[in-house]
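ok so I'm stuck.
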Amino acid sequence: MSTYTGPQTAQHDNSKMYDNSQMYNQSRMHNNSRMYNNSRMYNNSRMCDNSRMCDNSQMHAQSQMHDNSRMHDYSRMHDHSRMCDNSRMCDNSQMCGNSRMYGNSCMRGYGIATHPGHVVCADNVGVECTCLTVHPDTQLGLRVNRGCFTGSVADFLAAVRDKPKDDMWRDAYPELLYGLVYAVTVALERYPIEGVPMDLVHEAQAMTAKGGTR
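replied:
not stuck anymore, here's the structure
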């Protein structure tokens, strides 16, 4: 396998391509960015800093990756979307429009975002001090990611209920989750995404409003 760079593409600084990765149109790589496997860059997309693309991930239009952001699997970036800090995209997730990811946020499953308010997170959560992320999902309505866990709000609350009753996070998780779910729900009501089942979104919001462990 060999890499491919189109005639108007450009690699700057210490950026590198490996495997079968390919660049087209006027895409650009800067700094220490890396492309691996079958990843693709199109149009005016940009990779900067220590960002990484792996597997079958793709960037389109004027999307940009910064800092230590990562794309894996079949994830896609479109339009003016941005990834910053230590954010990650996995599985079949998509960023479109003016969506943004910051901090240690993680988008998984069939996640999708078109607005900055569609992906919200809280850092230093749990005894492992990992990131708790909530985002829209075309299959689940809302998806919750934390550490190795990814699933629906109901599945996450069920996992929390299995914690020992003297675990401080058993009561803290539902309260924290309520704020994140509420924020994403409000963003979806103002900036709806075609394909995201709002009935499941509102169901998840009602579930967190009632409290998860009681």
